[in-house]
Amino acid sequence: MTKKDMLKMLHDEEPILRAEITALYSVLDHKLGLHGADVPITFGMDEKALGSYMPPSYDNEEQFQFSLFFIGFCLNEQLSKTDRVNLYKHEYAHYMTRHIVIPEQYNWQPGVHGSAWKYCCSLIGAIPSDFYVEGQSLKKVDYDSVLTRPNVDHKQVQMLDTYRTQRMYKNMENAKVRYEVGDTVTHPKFGEGTVKEVEKQPSSVRLHILFGDEVKVIDQKWLVKTGYQRAGDR
Q1: pTM exceeds 0.85
Q2: End of a domain among 134, 151, 174?
Q3: What is the mean pLDDT of each run of 10 residues along the chain (234 residues)?
Q4: How many domains does the chain have?
Q5: Domain check: are 96 and 25 in the same one?
Q6: CB count, 10 Å around CB of 134?
Q7: Is-contact 94 61, C-beta < 8 A?
Q8: Are 39 and 55 in contact (CB under 8 A)?
Q9: Largest CA distance in the chain
């Protein structure tokens, strides 16, 4: 199977995966009186992040994002169903922190994965862990212990959350589309090329650029970083 064939198969699975996620979120919505199932669900091929919840911002609408690289059915190393469900709940808990009132006693630990998020995890049965560990979703969680006793130093949490916030902002900046189809750019090796396709990813933008008779896929942030501007901007 070629990479192109695999990508097509993965993208063909999007309706099935979206239906699976929406069905789960509809059940949680009914339980909590929320509307998570109405939030747009997008898919990408991020090889580092399994999923994310993006709150509404000036440039982006509220959305859930999941990587087909981890949840695609046609992949040999696909997450198990229990791990997939836990991933979906993990991101729904992030959504909850923006849409429900968190009791004061669960606001003692700051951060994206602080006590407020862990409290939301406890309401829907999600594993309150920052990172994915295979099979972790099968373990029983003592939520009372997690919610009442810090497991890391607060200064460390603040430092980690500062890093995550900076990384999230950087990813949002990298995902802004700065080129359009038809734009002409100059590359130091390939010469002048024309943008034929703009492929937006959760944390980047890939440009399909035609140089002569050959199309090259180049990360937009590389062009921005190296200062290779559109011909019209020079």
Answers
A1: no
A2: 174
A3: 76 92 98 97 88 86 91 74 92 96 91 93 92 68 77 57 72 82 85 89 86 88 65 48
A4: 2
A5: yes
A6: 10
A7: no
A8: no
A9: 63
